[in-house]
């Protein structure tokens, strides 16, 4: 068998896995489009493209189901409706994109109503096949071309990888327009009756569904890559971009490996069931053949015995009357013993010499041209099956040459046996069988509705001859091409495995249609296993991608929060001491003052500075002065409450906001701080002291008056000799316009 036919036969037997791959690619396309729509927004035009992917993928899996379950008219209608709906979603995607490009396409509702009516009209006129063809021509082709145009238009505004992906998607949809919108299932009108699935398979040896499936894979991969680009732009992380590229390659490699292994597993499981069914089929064929051989073997043996009988030759060589009577007796006995309906002796011209029964002259005139007669004249045994259009009878002819003593042929002996008894016996056979002539015309079957029907299309040049030979023929071909042994055909809505075997001594052949449910059930185990493994891999990779994306986004949020916190800290913190600065103090003072007024709680303010700090800077330098301020801040911070707020007021001056403390209590706290500072030792400078001013907030105070009074108290401590703590209430404030004390 040529390689091309071998490949074509293999692919034809893999249609279930091809439909599975085809549907899986489109469903994956739909899932990716939904992911893109999540990024773009719920009203994104990617949503109808995703619906197209899901609907079209589901439609292909329905086609897969039609290989396993009976393909009824209702089921065919449902599959056609799903396909048409998917094309409408694709058209809506192209229409929405056209609007965003500034074009003004037709309104959706009127357009879709008209297209649906067109498909329904096709169904009314030519049935479901015409409706499906109208859907592909009128919706699918233009929707795919529109989608290709959309991606091509997008590509013009892009560059680099994004542009390449958009162009790949555009090319994929353009190819799909041709594969799904031009090459359609056969329908009773041009061009669907010419450029259809069968035509493509005959020209290329490849099912068009495989081409569509590969194009669907390209579309799914290109849109998946586009989704990845959008994710990279959204996340803006080099780490995520690098991972997503690795994930794309890893996922693709894993899925391709699983699909390849799944295909091998599916074919292995199907082959196991196929061998079992073929063995059963071979057993059935052997049973029919043995029954057929039993019907004809007696005739074959008897006609040979008749031709070689010494009593027959005198009929052809001018014997006596007694010889003629003896010969006729032998002829009658041969007919009776073989169960034949007629026996006869013919001379070499085909003229009737003797017959077991009355014979019509019209029949005799045909015998000289019959194949069995010509074969016997050539010195060989002749066997022939014939159909009588007058009485619709099927007969078996066996002939044998009658030879003279010198070996020359004197005439022909033949027996004719009706096959009606065989037909009646074989009608009890459960499995459908069909005896066909070389042109595929059913001449014997246990399915009465298939009698004299052509299994495959008749040759145009032989049509008139066959009609004369068989009379009325049902030339509605059951299958599209001649049936070959081991091929798959669609019989009465079911995909069956057929076995074909030649009938011995004739050009007839017997065909058995074997239900393929077991084969497809075995293959479906492989397909389901492949689907589950593919889903597990996709869930793993995409789940991992989601986790990494979530972690990266979480890290970015944490980084932003830390940055914001650092910015807030820098805005409210003194860079030298790490204490709050004056801005933070002002904010807290306003808040605590409002709280004190609202809840009638005490609030105290302590202000202090370093005594003779100018001398520290002058004698030891500003670096040492800064170190003194830092060490001083640490000492005070360790001594105050957690609810107190310590801030650097400016220079060597500091303030403490003490919520919940009244004036006397705050004075005691300040005195403890003063003593702690006095007892501490500072590097380089040794001992330093601080003066403290304390005041309590009153209802009449504002932030400014409270600070001014604390400053007055600090001023009083300076006047009274430094290294002391002074408490000033609102009534005894002494600060006026006096000069500050260093």
Automatic annotation (TrEMBL):
UniProt cross-references to SMART domains, sorted A to Z: GGDEF
The EC designation for this entry is 2.7.7.65
Q: Does the keyword Isomerase apply?
A: no
Single Gene Ontology MF annotation: diguanylate cyclase activity
Segments traversing the membrane? 17-37, 73-91, 111-128, 134-153, 165-190, 210-227, 248-265, 524-543
Q: Which residues form the GGDEF domain?
A: 601-730
Question: What Gene3D superfamilies does its record include?
Answer: 3.30.70.270, PAS domain
Alphabetized, the UniProt keywords read:
Membrane, Nucleotidyltransferase, Transferase, Transmembrane, Transmembrane helix
Q: Which reaction does it catalyse?
A: 2 GTP = 3',3'-c-di-GMP + 2 diphosphate
Protein name per Swiss-Prot or TrEMBL:
diguanylate cyclase
